[in-house]
C-alpha cells in the first residue's frame, strides 16, 4: 500500500488547510476503491507530527497526529501544510520537518506538495533551488528575499516541477487537492470529488485575487518617494525621466534601483497601480469600461484591456460582472 503524509506543523497554521486535504484525500481513496472494485484502498493517509503529541492552533483546535516523522520511514507523497503568522519563526520551529522532507525526497524519491505558505518549508530544504514554485501572493516579497535561487511564479495557483508541487493562496488548497487527486487517483475520481464537494475544477491562476499595494519593504527612500508620486498621480501622463529627476536620480540609476527595490520596472509599477485603481472602480461603480479607462490614465482601449488582463487574469468586463454586485444581479 502506498502512503500519503500530511504534516501538522508546529506554531501557527490555519487548521482548515490541514483538515480539508485530509478529508478530500480520504474521500478520493474510498471512491477510487469502490470505482475499481479494489479489496483495499490505494493509499494509507497519515497526519504526521514531529512527534505523537497533539498540536493546538489558536488555543482552540487540536489535531492528534496519526504518525510521527520518526515512525514514517517511507512515504510516497508529503503534503506540506502551511505555516502562518511570523513566517521566519515558523521556519525555525519546523526545522525537524524540513530535514525529514529533504531526507524522504533524496532517499525515497517522495513527491512533495506545499500548500500556500508551506512553500517556505519546502524552499528551506533547498530542493526547489532553480525550480518553479508558487506561494500566497501576500508572501511573494519575503519569499523572493529569503529564497532568491527559487523561481517564484507569482500568478500561479499551482506549480509542478518533476514531482515537486506547490500552490498559491490558503483556500486554493481545495483546487490544489483536486489537482493532486487527479494525479494520484485519476481524473474520474477528481471530477467526482469536485462535484460532490462543489469545488471549482481546473482553476490555475491567483491573478484575479491579488491586491497590489506596492512593494515598499525596502530601504531605498528615493524609490519610495517615486512610488508615492506614482500612486498619487497615476491618472496623469507620467514621464519616467521627470519622476527620476523628482527624486534626484539620473534615469539609468533610477531604473536600476527601482527594479531592484520593487521587482518591477517603473512602467510595470504604473500599470499595476492603474489596474488596481480600475479594479476598485469596477467593483464599486456602474461606470462604463471606457469611462473607467479614461479615469485611470489610459487612452488606448486595446492597451488597457491587454494590461488589465495581464495583471488580473480577467477582462475588465469579466471582472466587473464577477465582483460588482449591482452589475452581477442587474
CATH class of the largest domain: Alpha Beta
Average of per-residue pLDDT values: 88
Separation of termini? 54 Å
Contiguous low-pLDDT stretches (5 residues minimum) are: none
Order of helices and strands: EHEEEEEHHEHEHEEEHHHHHHHHHH
Number of domains: 2
Beta-sheet strand percentage?
5-15%
Q: Percentage of helical residues?
A: 40-55%
Provide a count of the helices: 15
Task: Please name the CATH topology of the largest domain.
Answer: Rossmann fold
Strand order of the largest sheet: 5-2-1-6-7-11-10
Overall radius of gyration: 23 Å
Q: What is the 3D shape?
A: globular
Decide which structural class fits the backbone: alpha/beta
What's the CATH architecture of the largest domain? 3-Layer(aba) Sandwich
Largest sheet: 7 strands, mixed
Q: Report the count of strand segments.
A: 11
CATH superfamily descriptor of the largest domain? Class I glutamine amidotransferase (GATase) domain
Please give a quick description of this structure.
The relative contact order is 0.09. α1 (16-36) links the parallel β1 and β2 (43-49). The protein has helices spanning 16-36, 87-93, 95-108, 119-124, 140-146, 173-185, 187-197, 221-233, 240-246, 251-262, 266-284, 289-295, 301-312, 316-323, 325-328, and strands spanning 2-7, 43-49, 55-57, 61-63, 67-68, 77-80, 111-114, 132-133, 151-152, 158-161, 164-167.
What does this structure look like?
By secondary structure, the chain is of the alpha/beta class. The protein folds into two domains: 2-208, Class I glutamine amidotransferase (GATase) domain (Rossmann fold); 221-328, Orthogonal Bundle (Arc Repressor Mutant, subunit A), CATH 1.10.10.60. 49% of the residues lie in helices and 12% in strands. It is built from 15 helices and eleven strands. The strands form three sheets. A seven-stranded mixed beta sheet has the order 5-2-1-6-7-11-10, sandwiched between helices.
Amino acid at each position: 500500500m502506498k502512503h500519503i503524509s500530511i504534516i501538522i506543523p508546529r506554531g501557527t497554521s490555519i487548521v482548515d488547510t490541514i483538515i480539508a486535504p485530509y478529508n478530500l484525500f480520504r474521500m478520493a481513496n474510498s471512491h477510487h476503491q469502490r470505482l475499481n472494485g479494489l479489496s483495499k484502498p490505494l493509499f494509507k493517509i497519515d497526519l504526521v507530527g514531529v512527534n505523537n503529541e497533539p498540536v493546538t492552533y489558536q488555543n482552540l483546535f487540536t489535531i492528534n497526529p496519526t504518525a510521527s516523522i520518526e515512525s514514517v520511514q517511507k512515504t510516497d507523497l508529503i503534503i506540506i501544510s502551511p505555516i502562518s503568522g511570523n513566517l521566519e519563526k515558523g521556519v525555525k520551529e519546523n526545522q525537524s520537518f524540513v530535514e525529514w522532507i529533504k531526507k524522504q525526497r533524496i532517499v525515497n524519491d517522495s513527491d512533495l506538495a506545499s500548500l500556500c505558505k508551506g512553500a517556505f518549508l519546502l524552499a528551506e530544504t533547498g530542493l526547489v533551488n532553480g525550480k518553479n514554485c508558487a506561494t500566497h501572493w501576500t508572501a511573494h516579497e519575503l519569499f523572493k528575499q529569503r529564497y532568491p535561487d527559487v523561481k517564484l511564479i507569482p500568478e500561479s495557483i499551482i506549480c509542478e516541477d518533476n514531482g515537486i508541487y506547490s500552490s498559491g493562496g490558503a483556500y486554493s488548497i481545495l483546487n490544489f487537492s483536486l489537482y493532486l487527486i487527479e494525479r494520484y487517483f485519476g481524473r474520474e475520481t477528481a471530477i467526482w470529488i469536485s462535484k460532490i464537494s462543489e469545488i471549482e475544477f481546473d482553476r490555475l491562476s491567483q491573478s484575479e485575487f491579488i491586491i497590489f499595494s506596492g512593494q515598499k519593504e525596502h530601504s531605498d527612500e528615493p524609490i519610495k518617494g517615486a512610488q508615492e508620486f506614482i500612486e498619487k498621480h497615476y491618472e496623469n501622463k507620467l514621464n519616467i525621466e521627470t519622476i527620476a529627476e523628482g527624486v534626484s536620480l539620473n534615469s539609468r540609476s533610477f531604473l536600476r534601483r527601482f527594479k531592484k527595490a520593487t521587482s518591477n520596472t517603473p512602467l510595470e509599477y504604473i500599470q499595476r497601480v492603474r489596474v488596481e485603481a480600475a479594479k476598485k472602480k469596477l467593483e464599486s461603480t456602474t461606470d462604463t469600461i471606457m469611462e473607467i479607462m479614461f479615469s485611470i490614465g489610459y487612452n488606448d482601449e486595446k492597451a488597457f484591456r491587454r494590461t488589465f488582463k495581464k495583471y488580473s487574469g480577467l477582462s475588465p468586463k469579466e471582472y466587473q460582472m464577477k465582483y460588482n454586485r449591482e452589475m452581477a444581479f442587474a
